[in-house]
Amino acid sequence: MKKLFFKSLVKINNVLLPSLYKKDPMKLSTFQKAILGYRYWALTNSLK
After folding, report:
1. What does the pLDDT look like over 12-40, one tens digit per residue?
2. Domain count along the chain
3. What is the pTM of this model?
């Protein structure tokens, strides 16, 4: 159940949130870093 929830959350994130691919993490704003961290957290939980 938990894995299914996070897999669907990752799919929703891919559609709604901006892609930060090929951007330097050191040059991101605080809000963009928060989005990147949230997407990483959801992805790692979906893979467990």
Report:
1. 999 998 888 888 989 999 999 999 999 99
2. 1
3. 0.82
